[in-house]
Amino acid sequence: MLQKIQETAAFLKGKMHTQPETAIILGTGLGSLVHEITDKYEINYSEIPNFPVSTVEGHSGKLIFGKLGGKDILAMQGRFHYYEGYSMKEVTFPVRVMRELGIKTLFVSNASGGTNPNFEIGDLMIITDHINFFPEHPLRGKNIEYGPRFPDMSEAYSKELIAQALEIAKEKGIKVQQGVYIGTQGPTFETPSEYKMFRILGADAVGMSTVPEVIVANHCGIRVFGISVITDLGVEGKIVEVSHEEVQRAADEAQPRMTTIMRELINKA
Length: 269
Fold this sequence. Notes:
It is an enzyme of class 2 (transferase). By secondary structure, the protein is α/β, with parallel strands linked by helices.
């Protein structure tokens, strides 16, 4: 595993002419951030040795290098989900490669279903903590010496970055929520009873990504900031039939607000 990570990192280093310390996983709600990256150069996932290839039709996926607000960044356009059939090692492989490339801070975004009755569709939720509900742990198996066998997760999401994001939101007049994200394997949306259970467990929002990458980033010593766009509600009395298209519409509406927070935060990070 380590040999593959290092092989991939060596390939990328041979193509890179910048030294980013900041990476972004462009999940739902952050697509438009791509257009703000300047001095861009891109590498398709299909060209990168050992890299998983996206199973989503029409989304080959690529790594984008460039500048955002004068800062060198690396962006993943297209993430890998456990529900697509990847192992957890494949889902989190890019994060380990990031560590080899010298990444110090990771920004992640996603779409999620709100279980908190105070949330509305279109709300942005800054992730303060998570619950790992995936059936396979991304650190299962022989420990890679990027971090300890039993890594601490008491501050999985950087309190410093959360405080900065709240300040930015206040300055810009953007309404934000804060809460706990629970990660599940998907690909089904939740039943009303599952939503109720997740709320009882302490979750404010539920989604099908993010948690594995965040666990591995913490193991690698990379600090993390995460944000969710609430695209549907799992609250009793507000649950309606939901489709992927409706989720995408709600995410698109939230994009400008999420992009503003991320862009300003990356500038300060």
